[in-house]
Design a protein that fits this description.
With 557 residues, the protein is an alpha+beta fold. Helix content is 30%, strand content 25%. The longest helix is centred in the middle third of the chain and has 22 residues.
Length: 557
């Protein structure tokens, strides 16, 4: 067994101070390699525990949430006998609370409430937790890069935000969780030792016998997994070859996209919007895609290869409703997986511990060019993006939209644009990115800013309300979580949230099929060219499709 785990488990449980935090090497796996191993191992050890593992890359400051103290899963329920014009109970909110120990099943309550009421509950809960743990939170600085240290982690989908922005438009919501958030007081972060992980329990009452039982059991599980991985050969970069190829096909043919593009241009010419973000979907299924071991794969199985290929700074993964190889949830809630390879930051919230002031930064992406096959071509594409007046016009439209969004919550005169039209390079594309900053008003909670600014302007268009209505009409299918946001909000109001682009979802249909979806799109203006916009969609998801289909294993890179 690795040296870090020679300490006695009971001694470790008694006081998880920084000096005695248990840590593991886990076979020196990367975070993306570790999370599939961790999820399958913990679920196999205890099928009743409310394992709701979540991973965020957080610009290379990863966190893995293990067992939430409380979690909220929000579902749209059109059959709850409420009048269509009564939004007071439009959403079914399922609240799970962790059992006192692993022998106790988690408690679950279901409440029907409005979107606004759920926000209020989250803010009240966050403020209560912040007040209860003021003395134990780590110090931070407004100029430091934020990291998770105790709060809420999860996602809020596009559909619920768009529906709330224009409730009269009857925007369809996908048959899946609209949002999932959990209070993670038990989580893993990188340790000071190279390739190591440490267990964090900030805010957890370590004086109770029930808590001792939870930690003792969990640490024993992690010790055993660490031992197994220590003795197991580290997966090679081509280990994904054991996965069955997953082929995703366009829901639209090119002529379908052309028709939607033409209708988009009609709305733009009529003055409904200045910009509309039109997206298209790729679909597939895990059915009949058995792995070499004869088991249907999960989306998480493809995570290591996807993250290795994209190196997305704001990647993340979450599973809900016991989605795993061996368990079927026979309730009305169907298993759900969300895997994002997002390059786009939505919001970073920071708190100045000296003044108590909250600051916010957003970096909208608008403007894309593919990577070249060689250095000369790559530089030429990059320069073409720099010189593109069309992309600059699109970018500044979204900058103005976000400035207006933040203006509702920001201290007067504090909204700034320190950087316009910067070029950031990723594995498959170059993006044009701008930066907007602001200081929040003293009485504004960061969660209110997050909810009030969804969906992100970069994936709707402007004006936002009319754009989401047109998107619903033209795309003819809900987006689900795609184009929503995933991230964390510490109870002190610091946090980081992405825009859920380059994002896959897996839902289990009523027939039991595991259906996979992936989207791509772009902002359309009157100056847009249909063929170029269609090609941009392919450029954005081409590498993801290649990894899923296993084509990347046979290409020279």
């Amino acid at each position: 067994m690795p040296a870090e785990n020679h300490k006695n488990t009971e001694q470790t449980v008694s006081a998880l101070s920084p000096a005695t935090q248990p840590s593991w090497r886990f076979g020196e796996l990367t975070a993306a390699e570790l999370i599939p191993q961790l999820q399958s191992y913990l679920i196999a050890k205890d099928t009743e525990a409310n394992w709701q593992l979540v991973w965020l890359n957080n610009d290379d400051r990863p966190v893995i949430g293990l067992l939430p103290k409380v979690s909220w899963s929000v579902h749209y329920d059109a059959t709850n006998n409420k009048p269509t014009d009564d939004p007071s109970g439009a959403y079914k909110v399922i609240k799970n609370c962790r059992g006192s120990c692993f022998d106790d099943s988690p408690t679950s309550t279901t409440t029907y409430m409005s979107y606004a009421k759920w926000q209020d509950e989250l803010i009240a809960y966050s403020q209560a937790c912040e007040n209860a743990n003021k003395d134990s939170k780590p110090a931070s600085d407004v100029n430091e890069k934020p990291s998770y240290h105790h709060g809420l982690i999860g996602f809020i989908g596009y559909d619920i935000a768009a529906h709330e922005l224009s409730p009269a438009a009857n925007i369809e919501l996908a048959a899946q969780p609209c949002a999932v958030l959990g209070h993670y007081d038990i989580y893993l972060t990188p340790s000071d030792k190279e390739n190591g992980w440490r267990l964090n329990t900030l805010g957890l009452n370590t004086d109770s016998e029930a808590t001792d039982a939870i930690l003792s059991t969990l640490i024993s599980y992690l010790d055993m997994l660490d031992h197994e991985l220590f003795n197991r050969k580290k997966p090679s970069n081509d280990s994904a070859s054991s996965l069955a190829p997953l082929i995703l096909n366009e829901r639209w043919h090119k002529n379908d996209y052309q028709r939607a593009f033409a209708k988009t241009q009609d709305y733009l010419q009529q003055g409904d919007c200045y910009q509309i973000n039109l997206t298209q979907e790729w679909q597939g299924s895990f059915d009949n895609n058995l792995n070499d071991d004869g088991i249907l794969p999960m989306l998480i199985d493809y995570l290591p290869a996807l993250h290795r290929n994209t190196k997305a700074p704001f990647a993340g993964y979450l599973a809900a409703n016991h989605f795993n190889h061996d368990i079927k949830d026979h309730t009305s809630l169907h298993p759900f997986e969300l895997l994002s390879c997002s390059p786009e930051l939505f919001f970073t919230f920071t708190k100045d511990t000296n003044t108590g002031k909250h600051h916010i930064r957003t970096k909208p992406i608008k403007g894309t060019m593919p990577r070249g096959l060689n250095t000369a071509q790559d530089n030429a594409y990059k320069q073409q993006l720099i010189d593109s007046e069309k992309d600059r016009a699109e970018n500044v439209m979204i900058v103005d939209l976000l400035r207006n969004d933040l203006g509702k919550y920001a201290k007067t005169g504090s909204v700034k644009v320190p950087q316009l039209f910067a070029i950031e390079t990723f594995s498959n594309v170059h993006h044009m990115v701008s930066t907007i900053t602001a200081e929040l008003k003293p009485d504004t909670h960061p969660l209110a800013v997050l909810f009030g600014s969804l969906p992100a302007g970069s994936i709707t268009g402007t004006p936002k309300k009319r754009a989401v209505e047109i998107i619903s009409e033209l795309e003819t299918a809900p987006r689900g979580a795609y184009c929503g946001t995933m991230g964390y909000m510490n109870f002190d109001g610091s946090g980081q949230w992405n825009v859920l682009i380059r994002t896959l979802q897996v839902n289990e249909s009523l027939s039991g099929a595991r259906e996979v979806s992936l989207w791509a799109g772009g902002g359309i203006t009157v100056a847009s060219d249909c063929d170029a916009e269609y090609q941009e969609c392919l450029d954005k998801v081409g590498n993801l499709l290649s990894v899923l289909s296993q084509e990347h294993l046979y290409k020279h890179t």
